[in-house]
């Protein structure tokens, strides 16, 4: 237990899911946070120390009292964001993935050679994600080193916890001439430059911003690039983020080129580690799941974008039951919402669709995949604890010595769709209503590492 006086003490109802599938409600609890942003104590209302801590905080002027209808939740973790795609979120979602990339996405990402454009876009993105309660974000940047280092600086300055990588794209057969690394060597050197920049950011305590090696996906990289990136991972021990078996086209491309699936190819090359985040992974099978689990790698489940671009549903329930580490990703802009709460809703919905089936011409008993559904508790766990576990971070729950990353949800906001009935709604009901009905207007305060970044 920390002996130093708390810099912040919050008194109110805490909702979190430290155990998979279970909501823990701490009504009238006190959470004390140190000056460096760690949780010092979580004191239940019935603790003998509760009156003393409450009185001391009042006298010291460090107490924040939550009003009735306000709830403190852990900050949300988004495991998969294409930062440069922010300006096109909600556009061109009717296109097939490869056409969407070549005709819309790559031309947009090429614009980040303009540092002023990059600054305007990235500041807007980080502000909006914080407003939606995303306290930890895993970002793909562009091929541009200057723009991607700028993203790291912006996230750090605005106080968002972030994992950031410069995308590697050197395969001239799949990457357009106007948007790719100038050479394999240039791509590798740029990755090293970004890592060194992030590691040298002043006051990047514990740290707040971390680098990631980021092969966009196997089709965008030559084998020389992939092996060079694996060497960088070995040298720096940093995170890895890439796409894995996202769509029929990409999945088959890797089989045709490497004679094996994405998971096995990444593993053979040395890019499957305990710090690897595999986005989508819709088409993985039992063998892939075993390999991912053995390497302690993780999956970023992106339910909204999967519906639009993958023509398949990730076997989420099976992955969770198999012991895989899974969190949620918005996949901006393949996913049309920046809200992790919206993606909780979608994760629940697509799991129900997979279980029940959607083809009305088939008999009900033959239509779906049994035992595929998840519920709101499990979706929220993925949005917090699951994402934290995937990144190896001490966030996502209210526990002593964890980072204080939190959001204050206000159910009493005028004009909100979130309405709580005191005599009808249990604490589980309240969390479920928050997931289904809360929006950014209900997120009143956001803290990252103890710093209030939105009020």
Write out key terms for the chains shown.
455 residues, Urease, subunit C, domain 1, TIM Barrel, 2 domains, eight-stranded mixed β-sheet, globular
Quaternary status of these chains?
A: single chain
Going by CATH, the homologous superfamily of the largest domain would be Metal-dependent hydrolases
Main sheet attributes: strand count, strand direction, barrel closure: 9 strands, parallel
Instruction: Note the total helix count.
Output: 15
The amount of helix comes to: 25-40%
Describe the protein's architecture and organization.
There is one protein chain. The protein has 455 residues and is of the alpha/beta class. The chain has helices at residues 50-60, 97-110, 115-131, 145-158, 184-199, 223-236, 248-258, 262-269, 286-294, 303-309, 316-321, 340-356, 364-367, 376-391, 427-437; strands spanning 8-19, 22-33, 39-43, 63-65, 70-74, 76-82, 134-140, 161-165, 167-168, 209-215, 239-244, 276-280, 298-301, 325-328, 406-410, 443-448, 451-454. Strand 2 (22-33) and strand 3 (39-43) form a beta hairpin. The radius of gyration is 22 Å and the shape is globular. The mean pLDDT is 95.
Give a nutshell description of this structure.
With 455 residues, this protein is an alpha/beta fold.
Ordered list of secondary-structure elements with their pairings:
Layout: E1 8-19, E2 22-33, E3 39-43, H1 50-60, E4 63-65, E5 70-74, E6 76-82, H2 97-110, H3 115-131, E7 134-140, H4 145-158, E8 161-165, E9 167-168, H5 184-199, E10 209-215, H6 223-236, E11 239-244, H7 248-258, H8 262-269, E12 276-280, H9 286-294, E13 298-301, H10 303-309, H11 316-321, E14 325-328, H12 340-356, H13 364-367, H14 376-391, E15 406-410, H15 427-437, E16 443-448, E17 451-454
Parallel strand pairs: 1-4, 1-5, 6-7, 7-8, 8-10, 9-10, 10-11, 11-12, 12-13, 13-14
Antiparallel strand pairs: 1-2, 2-3, 5-15, 15-16, 16-17
């Amino acid at each position: 237990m920390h002996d130093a006086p708390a810099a912040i003490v919050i008194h109110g109802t805490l909702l979190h899911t430290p155990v998979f599938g279970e909501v823990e409600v701490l009504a009238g609890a006190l959470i004390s946070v140190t000056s460096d942003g760690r949780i010092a104590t979580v004191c239940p209302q019935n603790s003998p120390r509760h009156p003393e801590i409450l009185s001391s905080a009042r006298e010291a002027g460090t107490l924040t009292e939550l009003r009735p209808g306000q709830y403190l939740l852990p900050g949300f973790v988004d495991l998969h964001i294409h930062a440069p795609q922010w300006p096109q979120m909600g556009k061109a979602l009717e296109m097939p993935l490869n056409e969407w990339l070549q005709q819309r996405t790559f031309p947009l990402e090429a614009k980040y050679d303009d540092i002023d454009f990059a600054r305007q876009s990235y500041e807007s993105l980080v502000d909006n994600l914080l407003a939606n309660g995303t306290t930890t974000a895993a970002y793909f940047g562009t091929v541009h080193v200057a723009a991607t280092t700028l993203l790291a600086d912006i996230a750090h300055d605005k106080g968002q916890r972030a994992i950031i990588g410069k995308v590697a794209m050197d395969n001239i057969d799949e990457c357009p001439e106007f948007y790719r690394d100038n050479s394999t060597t240039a791509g590798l050197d740029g990755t090293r430059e970004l890592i060194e920049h992030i590691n040298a950011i002043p006051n990047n305590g514990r740290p707040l911003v971390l680098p990631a090696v980021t092969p966009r996906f196997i089709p965008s990289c030559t084998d020389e690039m992939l092996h060079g990136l694996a060497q960088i991972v070995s040298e720096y021990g940093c995170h890895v983020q890439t796409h894995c078996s996202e769509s029929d086209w990409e999945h088959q491309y890797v089989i045709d080129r490497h004679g094996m699936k994405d998971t096995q190819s990444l593993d053979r090359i040395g890019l499957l580690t305990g710090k690897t985040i595999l986005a989508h992974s819709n088409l993985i099978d039992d063998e892939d799941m075993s390999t991912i689990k053995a390497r302690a790698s993780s999956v970023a489940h992106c339910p909204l974008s999967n519906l639009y671009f993958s023509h398949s549903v990730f076997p989420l329930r099976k992955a969770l039951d198999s012991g895989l580490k899974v969190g949620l990703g918005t996949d901006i802009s393949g996913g049309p919402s920046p809200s992790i709460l919206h993606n909780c809703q979608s994760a629940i919905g697509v799991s129900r669709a997979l279980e029940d089936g959607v083809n009305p011409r088939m008999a009900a008993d033959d239509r779906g995949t049994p035992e595929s559904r998840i519920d709101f508790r499990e979706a929220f766990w993925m949005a917090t604890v699951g994402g934290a576990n995937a990144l190896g971070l001490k966030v996502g729950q209210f526990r002593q010595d964890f980072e204080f990353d939190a959001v204050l949800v206000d159910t009493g906001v005028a004009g909100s769709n979130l309405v709580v009935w005191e005599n009808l709604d249990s604490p589980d009901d309240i969390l479920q209503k928050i997931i289904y009905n809360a929006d950014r207007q209900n997120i009143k305060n956001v803290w990252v590492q103890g710093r209030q970044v939105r009020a």
